[in-house]
Amino acid sequence: MELRRKYDVRWRLTGVATRRIGWLANPDGLNPIAAISGHFPTGLQPARDVYEWLERARADVLFEATSLNAPTGQPAIEHLIAALKHGAHAVTANKGPIVHAYRELTTLARERGRQFLFESTVMDGAPIFSLFPLALPAAELRGFSGVLNSTTNVVLTEVEKGRSFDEAIKRAQAMGVAETDPSQDLDGWDSAVKVAAIATVLMGVPTRVDQVQRTGIRELSEEKIRSVRAAGMRYKLVCRAALRGDGVDCRVSPELLLLSDPLAGLEGTSSAIRFDLDVFGLSLVEHNPGVEATAYGLLADFLRAAKA
User: Fold this and answer.
1) Domain limits of the chain?
2) Could you say which of 68, 132, 204, 304 has the lowest number of CB atoms within 10 Å?
3) Is 144 within 8 Å of 169 (Cβ atoms)?
């Protein structure tokens, strides 16, 4: 009702797909509350694949939210290509497709007169990618730095408080920010993909994940994390990128920061980024986001697509 009144947008959920239930679709609509609980109309048969599913659902917009596959970006790329070929807008929270298929997907979207949108891929609902074309036209991004991974921030914060690494990881998992296998976060892969995505889209330099110098936080001992905190410093997993000629230097690594550094003050799931532009510097901070922030990013992209 709120979307209809404020934005003149009407919507209906016609398809849901997960590893557990398969590809379920009903063009007459599915009950969102029942779907969250795993209850679907009796006799609903799963489609064979994403292409048949999109046809059955008569989809106008696809929301793609599979887990990150850093080396390949699949199966998210296949899902997004299928949506665009079907004639639907493609909205994703998955960073992999940006790094591995940004040019292909943007070209396909343009050819089909659809939108390929991905605001939720970095800093959840914060306006990272939509900010530049709308609010910063003609500004040149020369570099950026930030803390972009919530899991490592939670783990480091909890270890500072006296918890072990294992206890801190379980805390992050309980908060819903860490996967069952948190290695993507702890080893810096998630941050490296985000760096590559920002460099590719906002700096105009196609960047592979293996071009990002990457070190995770596993090399830090609990004692070291606590001792530097007592001395007025903190470790953070920091992302950095800077233009160098026609290329870009990118890295992700734990850095020892003075408490006066704005990045050092980030607690819990908070994240931040500083953009170094040719005209000024600009910082964005996202304070303790939850899963609702990611959902908001998807919603914002949906509204952009619907109003395009």
Assistant:
1) 2-126+292-307, 131-288
2) 204
3) no
The overall longest dimension of the chain from CA atoms, in Å, is 64
Tokens matching residue 131: 């900010």
d(CA 105, CA 117): 10
Burial classification of residue 280, based on how many CB atoms lie within 10 Å of its CB (0-12 exposed, 13-18 middle, 19 or more buried): exposed
What are the structure tokens assigned to 269, written together? 């799931």
Which candidate, 118, 29, 103, 123, places its Cα nearest to that of 65? 118
Q: pTM to 2 decimals?
A: 0.94
Q: What is the DSSP string of 198-217?
A: HHHHHS-----GGGEEE--S
The predicted pLDDT at position 307 comes to 85
CATH class of the 2-126+292-307 domain in this structure: alpha beta
253-280 pLDDT, tens digit per residue, is 999 999 999 999 999 899 999 999 999 9
Rounded-to-integer distance, Cα 237 and Cα 192, Å: 11
Q: How many CB atoms lie within 10 A of CB 242?
A: 16
Q: Which CATH architecture has domain 131-288?
A: 2-Layer Sandwich (3.30)
The two structure tokens encoding residue 268: 């819990």
Token pair of 82, please?
A: 């299928």
Query: Mean of the pLDDT values across residues 205-230?
Result: 95
The three-class DSSP label of residue 280 is coil
136 Cβ partners below 8 Å, 6+ apart?
277, 282
For the segment 205-231, the average pLDDT, to the nearest whole number, is 95
pLDDT digits (tens, 9 = 90+) for 63-115: 999 999 989 999 999 999 999 999 999 999 999 999 999 999 999 999 999 99
pLDDT of residue 290: 85
